[in-house]
């Protein structure tokens, strides 16, 4: 097991395009660290720099205490799993998984042992003689993971590995990856733009925005105490309601209204209450089964609010509905979007 240290890393692409100004990140040995953020925020660039597929402009990256800046990808002792699987179509599953070991001159019996072991872990024993085209998308992704596992690397790097799978398979494979990582305890860096995937997989969640880290923490910590308006809006689904404090005077203390502050309140923290301070005109009600999302508009006519409620009885479009929230469920942000509440 190896840790990964990213220190003062900067990335400027040719043409003087600075996409990562100065980034620090420490990933402990055995930890699954997930980088999440909107398209273009620099997640893939960071992962590719750790992999050695992209040179870094400034700073240092260490894997297991060893500086890897100048090392080629093959010398870094990492395994990558890509979105498109990158399997060799003409080779069997066994040969695909054995490829890296053969290249390194590993002895035949050792290759047999490791591939069979990985196939067992991944439930691929019955598919070893098949070609990739004879497998489903989920099975192909497992072969790609098998190929990563057999090398017993210092770290796994995952680049959006689930984005080619359909929704159901994505959830299933997500659980498999989590389970696998917990058993193997291999350090992993995982990139996704899907906040739900990030929340469920991560030991350490890193929210990126425009080449910078907005917040690092355990998923539930980030969910419970988002450090900025950006994180508040990005983590959680449906997203946290962001309400200018002066629009709902009764919701938070009066001194917040005058300071250009914003109140964040999660849809699931809004409780139906006929005397509640949050008044909305209901526009759309989404019934999801166990919960319903009520989409409405505040009296100001510009601030949209969502309340997630359980139960059979929900308001209808056009109704006026009122909600309250407990003080502990209010998140206050200053005019710069930084968290000010505890
Ligand atoms: N080779 C390149 N040359 C110049 N700019 C690049 C290059 N590769 C990426 N970029 C730019 O760097 C920024 C970060 O890209 P990156 O692919 O790391 O983002 P990302 O967060 O992984 O996005 P996505 O989720 O869409 O893959 C983007 O603005 C992108 O246009």
From TrEMBL:
Top-rank taxon: Bacteria
InterPro entries: AAA+_ATPase (IPR003593), ABC_transporter-like_ATP-bd (IPR003439), ABC_transporter-like_CS (IPR017871), ABC_transpr_MalK-like (IPR015855), ABC_transpr_MalK/UgpC-like (IPR047641), Mo/tungstate-bd_C_term_dom (IPR008995), NA-bd_OB-fold (IPR012340), P-loop_NTPase (IPR027417)
Domain ABC transporter: 4-235
Keyword list, A-Z: ATP-binding, Cell inner membrane, Cell membrane, Membrane, Nucleotide-binding, Sugar transport, Translocase, Transport
GO MF, one annotated term: ATP binding
Homology family: Belongs to the ABC transporter superfamily.
PANTHER family, sorted: MALTODEXTRIN IMPORT ATP-BINDING PROTEIN MSMX, SN-GLYCEROL-3-PHOSPHATE IMPORT ATP-BINDING PROTEIN UGPC
Protein name, entry field: Sn-glycerol-3-phosphate ABC transporter ATP-binding protein UgpC
Organism: Lutimaribacter marinistellae
